[in-house]
Amino acid sequence: RREIGVPEDAVLLLSVGELNENKNHQIIVKALAKLNDPNVHYAIAGVGDKRENLLALAKELGVSDRLHLLGYRKDVPELNHVADVFCFPSCREGLGLAAIEAMACGLPLITSNVHGINDYSANNITGYKCAPADADAFANAISKLAGDLNLRKTMGQGNTLLAKKYEVDAINLLLKETYGL
């Protein structure tokens, strides 16, 4: 946390993904401003053409000190282990492995409620799902998880178990069964 400029006692939201329109990181920045809690920080690991837009939005909304754009990272598992909540607000998504990796690391999720993500997330079980453009819903979900360590732990532990379904050995077995190999 020190390396990325996040206080040890802060609640750290993490996203991993390209800084583009589809990944919808701006909705979490807007939710962060609505939440108005100086103890909640948002870090994004990724690069892309929306970097300057995100910085400008954070400045406009007064949350620049709580937005951490980390760039390209090779230490995503380590980032997951120092985060408190994983945010995956994409407008559209395939399977979304970044969120499944976060689940495997024991993080609760705050996601958009779109196809692909819905395949492995369940409201009030894996975390919370919100409409991609609903900053109020994202702020509410952040508030619930930021304010309840036990809830974060319970959802995170459940996510660790749920993510096992997507491990390589499990997928290989499923493929062998499906194709009669």
Can you tell me about this structure?
The protein is an alpha/beta fold and 181 residues long. The protein is built from 7 helices and 6 strands. The chain has helices at 25-35, 51-61, 76-82, 97-104, 135-146, 149-163, 168-179; strands spanning 11-16, 40-45, 67-71, 85-88, 109-112, 127-130. Helix 1 links the parallel strand 1 and strand 2.
Strand and helix layout:
Blueprint: E1 11-16, H1 25-35, E2 40-45, H2 51-61, E3 67-71, H3 76-82, E4 85-88, H4 97-104, E5 109-112, E6 127-130, H5 135-146, H6 149-163, H7 168-179
Brief rundown of the structure:
The protein has 181 residues and is of the alpha/beta class. It has seven helices and six strands; from the N terminus they run βαβαβαβαββααα.
Shape: globular
Strand % is 15-25%
The average pLDDT score comes to 95
Give, in spatial order, the strands making up the sheet with the most strands: 3-2-1-4-5-6
Taken in chain order, the helices and strands follow as EHEHEHEHEEHHH
Q: Report the C-alpha radius of gyration, rounded.
A: 16 Å
| Helix/strand/pairing category | alpha/beta
Estimated helix fraction: 40-55%
In angstroms, what separates the terminal alpha carbons?
46 Å
Largest sheet: 6 strands, parallel
- In the predicted model, the low-confidence regions spanning at least 5 consecutive residues are none
Record field, number of beta strands: 6
Count of helix runs: 7
